[in-house]
Specification:
- This protein is α/β, with parallel strands linked by helices.
- It folds into three domains: 4-263, Rossmann fold; 266-401, Up-down Bundle (Four Helix Bundle (Hemerythrin (Met), subunit A)), CATH 1.20.120; 407-465, no CATH class.
- The protein has 16 helices and 16 strands.
- It has helices at 39-59, 75-84, 88-104, 121-133, 162-168, 210-222, 236-251, 283-288, 299-306, 319-336, 347-354, 359-375, 380-389, 398-401, 412-427, 431-443; strands at 4-7, 12-15, 24-28, 64-68, 137-140, 143-146, 183-188, 196-197, 205-208, 226-232, 257-263, 266-268, 271-272, 315-317, 446-452, 459-465.
- A five-stranded antiparallel β-sheet has the order 5-6-7-9-8. Strands 4-3-10-11 form a four-stranded parallel β-sheet, with helices on both faces.
- A hairpin with a 2-residue loop joins β5 and β6.
Length: 467
């Protein structure tokens, strides 16, 4: 089975050919652990988990290495620890545990390696010294800075010239910089901040810049050149651009990663997510509180809703999207309990995913499989294998898939009105409208039972809450 991915570096879809099929290597930027991860952070976690699953299926689980880092030294971490009056170590340990608990609920596999920045300081210092030695970096005022002008094709990933980047970027103005776009590899530590003995003959303790951390961790665990680097499109510039600059110039390579994959932005109910708009949502809130759409959402529901949009496209995060995903999962749970999965996922779904991770097409095929499996029990093992492969179902019951529902929350009058509207649509042979109403009721946890009245011959519908 051949794979095709869109490569941000070349701006086209390409057949994926790993450097070594016996050792396929992928790096994805992970969280900076100072607070709960927001729902936008969940998107790359879910997207690249599915890429990981697909690579394992094609090349074998033992032949794929997935590295997703944890950034545990950063200005935001320092500020939050000071604000809370706790140690940096306590803050990063607590928030890392929160992150792991939240994403586990989303059905993601653990990465092969999960390095922490603070465990790779020596590798970062070595990179600084290599870059200074090769005249790609310089020491100034206790800092080590990358000299952007020393790299002829800086900006290749974002496809912008140095002049365009200077015009559009917010750059730190500092008298010790040779050029405005030069960026920090290492900087002095202030009092109360974490610090390590500085490289390049600098006196005193210092700490690494954010970009340097990922270059060091990727190089340590995947080598100078590896197959795939992933992350959100917001990281393409300057973070990924600067990773490329550091790694290539230190190691004298043409590329850092052969394929660069980026997922699109996320907005909430048609607006950019921000705390000022009051629509900032964390993964934890979706899973544990009734703060979005008036209910809690199961992690599998969140995952299904997230994969409904192609990973490279912007996604509008809505309660309706989650309701539709939950309605489908209710159907799945009702027919797959106790079913043993087949040995392999559906071939058409795999074909869709192999085409630049086309999840909308894959889920459309899955919906057809659900309808077929409802009628024909022989189709259920393949459906279950397919959903398990995509991380979309793990034997949850209907009740488990709706953790925030209480029968007392249901407006019985509204349910009866919807049932009447559905019966009217059926009488008018408006089957699409009848199905839409049925799906809406299913998302509310309402199970419909249609029966023919013996006296009148008309269809009578009764309902109950799913258990």
């Amino acid at each position: 089975m051949s794979l095709t991915f869109y490569n941000t570096l070349t701006r086209k879809k390409e057949a994926f050919e790993p450097i070594d099929p016996r050792s396929v290597r992928m790096y994805v930027c992970g969280p900076t652990v100072y607070d709960y991860a927001h729902i936008g952070n969940a998107r790359p976690v879910i997207v690249f988990d599915l890429v990981f699953r697909l690579l394992r299926h094609v090349y074998g689980a033992d032949h794929v290495t997935y590295v997703r880092n944890i950034t545990d030294v950063d200005d935001k971490i320092n500020a939050r620890a000071a604000e809370e009056g706790c140690s940096i170590r306590d803050l990063t340990e607590r928030t890392a545990q929160q992150f792991h608990a939240d994403i586990a609920a989303l059905g993601v596999l653990a990465p092969t390696v999960e390095p922490r920045a603070t465990e790779h300081i020596e590798e970062m210092k070595t990179l600084c010294e290599q870059l200074v030695e090769k005249a790609h970096a310089y020491v100034a005022d206790g800092h080590v800075l990358f000299d952007v002008s020393s790299m002829a094709d800086y900006g290749r990933l974002s496809n912008r010239s140095l002049e365009e980047m200077e015009a559009g970027a917010r750059v730190e103005v500092a008298p010790y910089k040779k050029g405005p776009m030069d960026f920090v590899l290492w900087k002095p530590s202030k009092e109360g901040e974490p610090g390590w003995p500085s490289p390049c003959g600098i006196e005193g303790d210092g700490r690494p810049g954010w970009h340097l951390e990922c270059s060091a961790m990727a190089g340590k665990h995947l080598g100078d050149v590896f197959d795939i680097h992933g992350g959100g499109i917001d990281l393409a510039f300057p973070h990924h651009e600067n990773e490329i600059a550091q790694s290539r110039c230190a190691h004298d390579t043409d590329v850092m990663a052969r394929v660069w994959m980026h997922n699109g932005f996320l907005q909430v109910e048609g607006e950019k997510m921000s705390k000022s708009l009051g629509n900032f949502i964390t993964i934890h809130e979706l899973l544990d509180r009734k703060t979005f759409g008036g209910t809690q959402w199961h992690g599998r529901v969140v995952r299904w809703a997230m994969l409904g949009t192609h990973y490279r496209q912007p996604i509008d995060w809505t309660a309706e999207r989650l309701q539709q995903a939950r309605a489908t999962l209710f159907e799945v749970a009702e027919i797959l309990q106790g079913v043993e999965p087949a040995e392999a996922p559906n071939a058409e779904v795999l074909t869709a995913l192999s085409d630049d991770l086309n999840t909308p097409s894959a889920l459309s095929i899955v919906h057809g499989l659900v309808k077929s499996a409802k009628r024909n029990p022989e189709k259920r093992p393949e459906l279950k294998a397919t959903l398990q492969f995509m991380g979309l179902y793990g034997d949850e019951t209907v009740e488990e898939l709706d953790p925030g529902r209480s029968d007392s929350d249901i407006d019985a009058g509204a349910v009866e009105e919807l049932i009447a509207a559905r019966l009217s649509a059926r009488k008018n042979k408006d089957w699409a409208q009848a199905d839409r109403i049925r799906d809406r009721l299913a998302a509310m946890g309402v199970v419909l039972k249609d029966a023919k009245d013996q006296a009148s011959g008309e269809i009578v519908t009764t309902w109950e809450m799913a258990r």
